[in-house]
Amino acid sequence: LSDEGTKDVLIIRLIENSKLIEEISEKQNLHELKEINKPKKWRDIHINSLGLKPDTFSPAGTPQVSATVLKKLAGNNLFGDDKDAVYGSVYEVFQGGKKGKEACQAIGALANIGQIESTITNFLVPLQALVDKNKRIHCSLNLNTETGRLSSRKPNLQNQPALEKDQYRIRDAFIAEKNNTLIVADYGQLELRLLAHITECQSMLQAFRDGGCFHSRTAVGMYPYIKDAVDRGECLLEWDYSKGQPNVPLVKDVYGSERRKAKTLNFSIAYGKTVHGLALDWGISTEEATKTLESWYRDRPEVRDWQEKTRQQAKKLGFVRTIMGRYRLLPDASSSNKRAVGHALRAAINTPIQGSAADIVMMAMIKLYKSQTLKLLGWKLLLQIHDEVILEGPKETRDAAMVEVRQCMENPYDNYALSKLSVFLDVDAKSADSWYKAK
Asked: Does the pLDDT at position 138 exceed 70?
């Protein structure tokens, strides 16, 4: 350019523009820096998998990690003797051995944490909130249930932790008044005895007549090799320990796994449990569960015949009945909805057994309430929990009261126009100052 003045102006403008560019650049870098430091809404996370394929999903399609899933992964009886342990699917993922056991125990411990929280929420807190000024608990009992059993609420005293699960001894908080004590009496295997009576199953009836461990006798009937071992004298069905220690082990000690399966089946049959449910409980395939179930039925064909007959009756008539003649309507037994039909047919099998058990317990409660002997001895009925009753009374009349309680419960129907059962109703009665100690 020839004009020097104009040239100076251009140079100044260029310098000013370069500063502006630097400022813009600095601001841009600052913005980018802020964007980098700003927490991101989404991030990519890479997790190395163990190779386990989930088979249970939530409605949204994500894998579930519920207590049931954890139990399947971990197994059962993990913290006792190895012979009692049933390891879950994680065991094989870690190639078994020590690592497999530790993995199962770790997941089992995680599941136990959830149980602790559930215990606090469902049991401890309601008891603390609902105790009265005399430090007594009073629940509400409901008669209007499908099976005829009583249900309990505010609090649910029928749902306190079972003895083997009551690690925090919650039942030990239920105590008798001063100078009183408790009698806790319950029926032994009531549903199974009623199943034997209703189906006229000869092997079950004979097992109850012979006495001893019913579940061990079931295992002997299911597994020929256990029967052979008993016949050879290598193990015993039962033993009277008042004679000292046996010379050979018992069936429950040698064949503990088979006996547990027999016990599970004994109760599951009466409640209509499916093969799939049994396979989950045992941690085995459905094929293995089916074979075990077939071995149970092989020794008890009358039960299978009765179940089929009862299902057909439910479909045809739309109801089933208990031994006292109480009806349970099952209109869904002939529904076009497969799920509804399945539920109705399971109820058709369950109701005559569980409902009849409710009949027996209800008659026993009436007889206990009307007993003049118990009234004179100063005893009163406090609570009924399924097949169990709890009474409270003076310590000095405890022995006489226990005799009367057993008499009433073993013969609950002698004042009613009902046929006598073909099985003896065995009653176990114990006494202590707390519910926990009386069990």
From this structure: yes
Closest among 108, 141, 50 to 283, alpha carbons compared: 108
Query: Positive or negative CA dihedral for 377, 381, 382, 386?
Result: positive
Q: 72 with 284: CB under 8 angstroms?
A: no
Query: Which amino acid type is present at position 49?
Result: S
Summarised one tens digit per residue, pLDDT across range 306-361 is 999 999 999 999 999 998 888 999 999 988 898 899 889 989 998 999 999 999 99
The alpha-carbon radius of gyration of the chain (Å, integer) is 33
- List beta partners, residue 365: none
Which residues have a Cβ under 8 Å from the Cβ of 373 and sit 6 or more positions away?
Answer: 400, 401, 404
Query: Mean pLDDT for the chain?
Result: 83
- For 195-332, list the strands marked E by DSSP: 319-321, 327-329
What are the φ/ψ torsions at residue 391 (nearest 5 degrees)? -120, 155
Sign of CA dihedral 158, 160, 161, 166: negative
The distance in angstroms from the start CA to the end CA of the chain is 112
b/e map 142-175, b = 16+ CB within 10 Å? eeeeebbbbbbeebebbebbeeeebeeebbebbb
Host H or E run for residue 100: helix 97-119
Residue listed under structure tokens 């295997």: 189
**pTM reported for the whole predicted model:** 0.72
Return the amino acid letter for 164.
E
- The Cα–Cα gap between 351 and 194 comes to 12
Q: Residue 1 — pLDDT band, cuts 50, 70, 90?
A: very low
Helix pair angle (301-317, 190-199), 10° resolution: 80
DSSP state at residue 40: P
Which whole-number Å values give the CA distances from 219 to 50, 190, 215, 305, in the listed order?
Answer: 37, 19, 6, 21
Q: Cα dist. 435→113, 140, 432 in Å?
A: 26, 19, 7
Residue 213, Cα to own-chain centre: how many angstroms?
22
* Residue-wise pLDDT tens digits, 175-204: 999 999 999 999 988 999 999 999 999 989
